[in-house]
Amino acid sequence: MRLILLGPPGAGKGTQASGIVEKYKIPHISTGDIFRKNIKEGTELGKKAKEYMDKGLLVPDDLVVEIVKSRLTEEDCKSGFLLDGFPRTVVQAEALDQVLEQMNMSLDKVINIQVDMDILVKRAVGRRICKSCSATFHVEFNPPKLEGKCDVCGGELYQRADDNEETVSKRIEVYLNETKPLTDYYSKKGILLNINGEQSIDKVFEDIVAALGSVE
C-alpha cells in the first residue's frame, strides 16, 4: 500500500502514522527523518541538504525529490510506504508522480486529516514531548499517567518553544494556504480521503482503516 499522509500541525499525523505503519506493515517515510539520517551518515545528498539548512534556507525541491527517490528504492519500500511531510506543494507532487512512474509504481491513496484551526491551536499549545524518545502527549486530550513523565520511557516531558498561540496560528495558516492546491490536485486524481480529525484518536484511526478498506 503506497500512501501519503497530509494534515496541518497538531492534526495528530504522528499518532496516526504509527498506527498505519504497524497495521499495514509499511515503512513510515518522514522527510525530516531522511534529512537527519543522510546528514548523520555524511552522504552526498546529506552534505548538500546540510549546506542549505545551515544557512537557514529551505532545501530546494529537486534535492528533496532526489532524497525521497533514493529512500523509495530501498528494499523495505517494495511492499509499500507511508510518506509524511512530502509532497508539500503541487510542484513536489508532480515530481513524485514522475519518480513513481519511473519506478513503475503509483500511489494508492492520500489521507488528509482535517481539523478546524481553533482546535489545532488548542492542541498545539497543550502538546508535550518526551526529551528522551520524542513520544508526544497532550495535557488535556492525551495526558501522561504521571504529570511531566513519559509513559513510554519515563523521560522528562517539555513544551516546544514554538508551541505558543501566535506561532502556531501562523504555522497553520501557512500550511493551509500551501496545501489547499495539493489537496485539490489529489482530489482531481480521485485518490484523496478526507478524514475528520476532530474525533478521538481511536475513532480517527478507525475511519482511516475503513476508508482504506477497498485498497488492495
Automatic annotation (TrEMBL):
Please indicate which superkingdom the organism of origin belongs to. Bacteria
> Per its UniProt record, what Gene3D superfamilies does this chain match?
P-loop containing nucleotide triphosphate hydrolases (3.40.50.300)
* UniProt key word Zinc: yes
Q: Which reaction does it catalyse?
A: AMP + ATP = 2 ADP
Pathway given in the UniProt record: Purine metabolism; AMP biosynthesis via salvage pathway; AMP from ADP: step 1/1
Task: Write out the GO cellular component annotations.
Answer: cytoplasm
Q: Name one GO biological process term.
A: AMP salvage
> Which UniProt keywords are given for this protein, alphabetically ordered?
ATP-binding, Cytoplasm, Kinase, Metal-binding, Nucleotide biosynthesis, Nucleotide-binding, Transferase, Zinc
Report the EC code(s) recorded for this entry. Answer: 2.7.4.3
Q: Which InterPro entries match?
A: Adenyl_kin_sub, Adenylat/UMP-CMP_kin, Adenylat_kinase_CS, Adenylate_kinase_lid-dom, P-loop_NTPase
Where are the annotated segments for NMP? Answer: 30-59
GO molecular-function terms, A-Z: AMP kinase activity; ATP binding; zinc ion binding
Keyword hit for Chaperone: no
| Positions annotated to bind ATP | G10, A11, G12, K13, G14, T15, R127, T136, F137, Q199
Q: Where would you find this protein in the cell?
A: Cytoplasm
* Domain named Adenylate kinase active site lid: residues: 127-162
Question: Which positions bind Zn(2+)?
Answer: C130, C133, C150, C153
Which positions are tagged coiled coil? none
**Binding annotation for AMP:** T31, R36, L57, L58, V59, G85, F86, P87, R88, Q92, R160, R171
Its predominant location is: cytoplasm
The entry's family comment says: Belongs to the adenylate kinase family.
Domain commentary: Consists of three domains, a large central CORE domain and two small peripheral domains, NMPbind and LID, which undergo movements during catalysis. The LID domain closes over the site of phosphoryl transfer upon ATP binding. Assembling and dissambling the active center during each catalytic cycle provides an effective means to prevent ATP hydrolysis. Some bacteria have evolved a zinc-coordinating structure that stabilizes the LID domain.
Cite the HAMAP family for this sequence: Adenylate_kinase_Adk
Role, per record: Catalyzes the reversible transfer of the terminal phosphate group between ATP and AMP. Plays an important role in cellular energy homeostasis and in adenine nucleotide metabolism.
Assembly information from the UniProt record: Monomer.
This chain belongs to the protein called Adenylate kinase
**Species name:** Alkalithermobacter thermoalcaliphilus JW-YL-7 = DSM 7308
Origin organism lineage = Bacteria, Bacillati, Bacillota, Clostridia, Peptostreptococcales
